[in-house]
Amino acid sequence: MIESILPGAVTAVDTFVDPPGADLFPEEEAVVRKAVDKRRREFTTARWCARQAMRRIGIAPAPVLPGTRGEPQWPFGMVGSITHCAGYRAAVLAEQEKVTTVGIDAEPNDALANGVLEAVSLAEERDRIAVLLRDHPGVAWDRLLFSAKESVYKAWFPLTARWLDFEDANIVIDPLNGTFTAALLVTGPWVHGRRLSGFSGRWLAEQGLVVTAITVLAPVAPKTRTTGRLAAHR
């Protein structure tokens, strides 16, 4: 499902069930040894998805351990992101030469609990959400906003190794085109020779979920053209 909102440079694997044969590397097992069953199943299936993505890309399956902020640590030369919620798990992976950063998130298509929207949003975002809820029923726009903010953080952190609060990005959702923009309200890092000021993302509401994704593609290296004269001197 999530692959429909990601570019071809990103390999995505998702599932609505926990595969019975999914297992963990010993290093990963140590992370969830004392975890409750729900946490263990989420962690295990997300790693199963990650390893399926590794196989599709053509790299050897490897452990995906959480870093200091819980972020997945990918094999050298790779970037990726993981998400899981009730009844859904997904992992995406790409070569760093093709993709600079990627962030994904999935949430149930249900309204946030009372008080949560106020805690995770700016006043102008809440105003826009109210209009979306009025004009485009059927999507939990408050939950979609939350999901978009999660994707923003997951795309931001690998570039900066810094925390990003919910109020540090102002998100505008396009209800018709399945896209959103996130304007950073803090100083962003230098990316591809320019200061990063925000992200563009895509969203999807299907099968009881709202799903968001942000991908920053790496610049394409210009092809070197060899002229006949240069070739003659070789």
UniProtKB/TrEMBL annotation:
Limits of the 4'-phosphopantetheinyl transferase domain: 102-176
Any GO BP annotation: enterobactin biosynthetic process
Pfam families, alphabetized: 4PPT_N, ACPS
Keywords: Magnesium, Metal-binding, Transferase
Superkingdom, taxonomy of origin: Bacteria
Sample GO molecular function, one term: holo-[acyl-carrier-protein] synthase activity
SUPFAM superfamilies: 4'-phosphopantetheinyl transferase (SSF56214)
Domain 4'-phosphopantetheinyl transferase N-terminal, chain residue ranges per copy: 27-94
One Gene Ontology CC term in the entry: plasma membrane
Residues at which Mg(2+) binds: 105-107
UniProt entry tagged with the keyword Transferase: yes
Protein name as catalogued: 4'-phosphopantetheinyl transferase EntD
Organism for this UniProt entry: Micromonospora taraxaci
